[in-house]
Amino acid sequence: MSSPYPANRDTGPFHTELCRMASIRHPIIQGALGGVGSPALVAAVSNSGGLGVLPTWGVPLEQLRINIRRTRELTPRPFGINITPIGPSFARTRADVIVEEGVGVVTTGRADPRQPIVSFLKQHGVRVIAVVPTVRHARRMETEGVDVVVASGSEAGGHVGRVATLPLVPQVVDVVKIPVVAAGGIADGRGLVAVLFLGACGIRWAPASWLRWSVIPHRR
Ligand SMILES: Cc1cc2nc3c(=O)[nH]c(=O)nc-3n(C[C@H](O)[C@H](O)[C@H](O)COP(=O)(O)O)c2cc1C
Predict the structure, then answer these.
(1) Tens digits of per-residue pLDDT, 103-159?
(2) How many A from CA of 73 to the centre of ligand 1?
(3) Does the residue 133 lie in any domain?
(4) First to last CA, the chain
(5) How does pLDDT run across 203-212, given as a tens digit for each residue?
(6) Phi first, then psi: what are they for 116, rounded to 5°?
(7) What range does the domain containing 159 cover?
């Protein structure tokens, strides 16, 4: 029996709001991997149709600029930068480089980057995707003007949330009007389908295989 869905994946059921917003083919954001996420990994994810994301955690400012330019050499596709807001000056200096280098998407992790940073990025046309561990944080980030929230469950590697992904995602979907992405413990395509059913428009994903893949070229 033929598929009920159009053959063109750019209009099919997996071409979600996240795909349209980030100009990607598959609704998958690569989880930033502070300390190990290399331009090679980020470009590989973007070249495969997802959104590769460079980390800033543990990356000196000038190295960040080098990593952005290196990633551009490796992929013509969109990619993002993750800001881990460990202080106002850390977030602001990274935001400056992101705007100067013309990167179109920022994900945030660990904490609220604060409204002035969100506004600054938005004024320069950067889409902001905020990782949140609770409904309360999701509401706050929506008020600050982010474009998307990532409901990140306690299963997520390196994350501090205490609510598991399965209950967190529908709770967040119910309270915010902006698109919601799911993260935490998603193992394969069945996990993607499951969270789409819960109302998410994609996943933020950092499987162990990417971690291993990333470390190797990073050391070359
Ligand atoms: C080694 C490692 C480093 C990470 N570094 C970051 C980071 O710098 N910024 C961030 O927002 N999330 C970071 N994360 C979280 C991942 O990006 C991702 O959101 C999370 O792992 C998704 O859940 P999953 O691991 O269950 O797929 C890290 C995770 C790991 C395992």
Answers:
(1) 999 999 878 888 899 999 999 999 999 999 999 999 999 999 999 999 999 999 876
(2) 24
(3) yes
(4) 48
(5) 999 987 776 6
(6) -60, -35
(7) 17-34+54-215
Tokens of 166: 């399965």
- Domain CATH code at residue 173: 3.20.20.70
Torsion, Cα 196 140 128 55, to 10 degrees, reads: -90
Structural domain count, the chain: 1
Q: Is 220 within a domain? A: no
Find out whether 190 and 158 touch, Cβ atoms under 8 Å: no
Among protein residues, the one with the nearest Cα to ligand 1's atom 10 is: 109
**Going by CA atoms, what residue is nearest to atom 2 of ligand 1?**
33
Between CA 10 and CA 8 the distance in angstroms is: 5
The answer to whether 113 and 107 have CB atoms below 8 angstroms apart is no
pTM (predicted TM-score): 0.92
CB-based contact 152:131 (threshold 8 Å): yes
pLDDT in tens, 164-184: 999 999 999 999 999 999 999
User: How many angstroms separate the alpha carbon of residue 7 from the centre of ligand 1?
Assistant: 33
127 assigned to some structural domain: yes
**Is residue 45, in this structure, part of any structural domain at all?**
no
The pair of three-digit structure tokens given for residue 148, joined into one six-digit string: 């998307």
